[in-house]
Write a structure and sequence with these properties.
two-stranded antiparallel ribbon, single chain, alpha/beta
Length: about 280
């Protein structure tokens, strides 16, 4: 009888769904494995430990400007091998093909909460974000544009320092950028500097640490020489966490450690305050 035996139903074949391997991502700091899209939504910040991974210059521009407002400037400036440094010309061309035409810094103008500003973001993927003649020239032109238009300046730094293949030509950019930033300060035009991991060498010794307000991402390494070189020079052990954003905040070298998700709001608030604009709303 049907009551005492189970009727067998024919099974329909089900397609096996597999998640492709590139859909997953892993935090380099704590080892968390999660969906790649989740990391992207969090602006490449680990949802478990808060580790801030490196992002591109263009991504920083997207974060720090109103949608559709950014216009790139100085796109035709390109690095050249002025000193005939061995292999440098090939490295430049390789970097341009891999990263893009903006060299180690992307510069332009846009708005943030309706406030016009000039903004530059360094690209670490382009030869370690090294500061060559083109980087210094683009930063100087951007600062001069702020001077002419009395518009605030924002620079996001991520760099290993001066570009050694350009020798003294690279070192000269420290003086050039510092001189134009001094003029901004004299005119009372706001300059907000945002330092990310890493910001070292000639960049930290010039424009990166000359802002009216200096913001740092959590865990960012900021300093001139590396800890090993400093330890060998002074012959002493360095404090724990030396050269991290949190250590520098404690010792007065940066003004605030700001998570990436809060960078836009914090920068906008600072600019509006320094320009004596209303805290919210758009600019007439």
């Amino acid at each position: 009888m049907a009551w005492f035996k189970k009727e067998r139903k024919t099974r329909t074949s089900r397609e096996r769904l597999e998640i492709p391997p590139d859909a997953w991502d892993k935090c380099d700091e704590c080892g968390l494995v999660d969906i790649r899209e989740k990391f992207e939504r969090a602006l490449q910040v680990c949802p478990q430990c808060g580790h801030h991974r490196r992002i591109s210059a263009r991504r920083y521009i997207e974060i720090l400007t109103d949608p559709g407002s950014f216009v790139e400037l100085y796109m035709k400036l390109r690095s050249v091998d002025a000193l005939g440094f061995e292999g440098y010309a090939q490295r430049i061309e390789s970097a341009y093909r891999t990263v893009g035409p903006h060299d180690a810094v992307l510069t332009g103008h846009g708005t943030l909460t309706g406030v016009p500003l000039n903004i530059g973001a360094m690209e670490f993927a382009f030869m370690g974000g090294s500061m060559g003649s083109v980087v210094g020239e683009k930063i100087a032109r951007l600062a001069n544009r702020s001077l002419e238009r009395r518009a605030p300046l924002v620079i996001v730094s991520a760099s290993g320092g001066a570009r050694m293949q350009e020798g003294v030509l690279s070192l000269m950019q420290m003086a050039k950028t510092s001189a134009i930033l001094a003029r901004l300060k004299m005119e009372g035009i706001p300059f907000v500097s945002i330092v990310t991991n890493p910001t070292t060498g000639g960049v930290s010794a010039s424009y990166a640490l000359q802002g009216d307000a200096i913001l740092a991402e959590p865990g960012a390494v900021v300093g001139f020489a590396g800890p090993r070189v400093i330890k060998q020079t002074i012959g002493q052990d360095l404090p724990e966490g030396f050269q991290t954003a949190e250590f520098l905040l404690e010792h007065g070298m940066v003004d605030s450690v700001v998570p990436r998700s809060a960078l836009a709001d914090t920068t906008a608030s600072l600019i509006r305050h320094m320009m004596r604009l209303p805290a919210t709303g758009t600019v007439d």
